[in-house]
Specification:
By secondary structure, this protein is of the alpha/beta class. A 6-stranded mixed sheet has the order 2-5-1-6-3-4. It starts with 10 loop residues before the first helix and ends in a 5-residue tail after the last strand.
Length: 143
């Protein structure tokens, strides 16, 4: 164990976060997300909810300040009767806590999100049970 690093951040995830460079992307996928099918590098975080993991990651991980949308969410599929996912409000609060603005979130079509994930540096498969909880982060630089 290390001081100052959440126990939600596994050694494998810490290594991935360290290896990522400016502009690389990581996806935190919910329990329904086809993580293994989409991932170039897969990190398992089964049993963990995304909000707690996202908070821990954002403590270590700068988001890209040089793009309009350093964060992307999978938009609700048209015709799906689901209301706006409550977890999105949680994400907005966490992003604000870490200095980001909610208007910096991009909402992507499901299949576009899957395709972008296939090009991401890594995918973290979580045990998150909320639907539409998948979130993509673009790494920035530490100044």
């Amino acid at each position: 164990m290390l001081k100052g690093i959440s126990n939600l951040i596994s050694p494998e995830l810490l290594k991935i976060l360290m290896e990522m460079g400016h502009g690389d992307e990581i996806v935190l996928g919910d329990g329904n997300f086809p993580a293994a099918a989409c991932a170039r590098r897969l990190v398992r975080a089964d049993g963990h909810a995304i909000p707690a993991l996202l908070d821990a990651v954002l403590e270590l991980f700068p988001l890209d300040e040089y793009v309009d949308n350093p964060v992307a969410l999978m938009a609700v599929v048209p015709g799906d009767n689901s209301p706006t996912p409550e977890i999105w409000q949680t994400y907005e609060k966490l992003l604000s806590k870490h200095g980001q603005k909610p208007n910096q979130i991009e909402y992507m079509d499901r299949f576009d999100f899957y395709q972008r994930t296939k090009n991401a540096f890594a995918v973290v498969a979580t045990g998150e049970s909320a639907i539409y909880a998948n979130i993509l982060l673009k790494k920035g630089v530490i100044k």
